[in-house]
Amino acid sequence: MNNGIIKFFSNGLPVGAVGVITRPRNPKGWKNSHFRENVILNHRTLRGYQMAIEQTLSIIKPDATRRNLTGKINQRFEDAGLRIVAQKRIQLTPAQAEGFYAVHSERAFFGDLCTFMTSGPVVVQVLEGESAITKNREIMGATNPAQADEGTIRKDFAEDIEANSVHGSDSPETAAEEISYFFSKLEIVG
Ligand code: CMP
User: Fold this and answer.
1) Average pLDDT of the residues of the chain
2) Could you count the other beta carbons within 10 Å of the beta carbon of residue 86?
3) Ligand 1 pocket test: which of 73, 92, 109, 112 has the largest number of ligand atoms within 8 Å of its C-beta?
């Protein structure tokens, strides 16, 4: 019978993804009712602090591979705590570029975007980490480098809104689709 509590590390995070059940402890000698309330409160509060480990698709675009910026861009990801758990340098075919950007097929820039994305090698990669999707978008900066924050990849490296050096998934659903567009599960090693 589990009559214990969820065990926490001293930094407040639960041990293990679902917690490890241990025997109840009441080190402060509180009344039982106070002790129980505190455990429940802490459990709820700490669950709120847990951040999801996510994966996101990143592409280092032809303008960046042409200028030999792959290492500098990867350094930004790793410095921010993201892990590159899959990576390959490929030459996109027109069909691959059109398929990847199909969501933009009605946009005026679609043709130019696909021509640009096939103009040289790209590095496709899977980044993993806490809130990786949002974190990567923060590291990249705004789509248009003219509007990107200081210190972001696009502010520092992008040439213009099309040759904007990097792509990153914009939601968990898109990330799952985009990762599977380029990688099999066997190629992703966390
Ligand atoms: P990306 O994040 O890869 O997603 C779609 C891409 O279309 C975008 O980055 C830009 O490189 C490119 N693009 C070109 N023109 C525009 C535009 N006017 N608005 C948005 N994206 C554009």
Assistant:
1) 83
2) 23
3) 109
What are the backbone angles phi and psi of residue 10, rounded to the nearest 5°?
A: -65, -20
Enter the tokens of residue 165: 């050096």
2 has pLDDT over 80:
no
How confident is the model over 38-43, as a mean pLDDT?
38
What letter does residue 13 receive in the DSSP assignment?
Answer: P
Say what the pLDDT of residue 89 is: 98
Instruction: Express each pLDDT in 43-102 by its tens digit.
Output: 334 455 567 999 999 999 999 999 999 999 999 999 999 999 999 999 999 999 999 999
Residue pair 168/140 in contact (Cβ under 8 Å)? The answer is yes
Contact of 82 with 98, CB cutoff 8 Å: no
Closest to 66 in 3D by CA, of 143, 151, 158:
158
Q: Which among 103, 104, 105, 113 is the best mutation to test ligand 1's pocket, defined by most ligand atoms within 8 Å of the CB?
A: 113
- Determine whether 168 is exposed, middle or buried from the number of CB atoms within 10 Å of its CB (0-12, 13-18, 19+): buried
Structure token pair of residue 180: 């599977």
164 lines ligand 1 (CB under 6 A): yes
pTM: 0.78
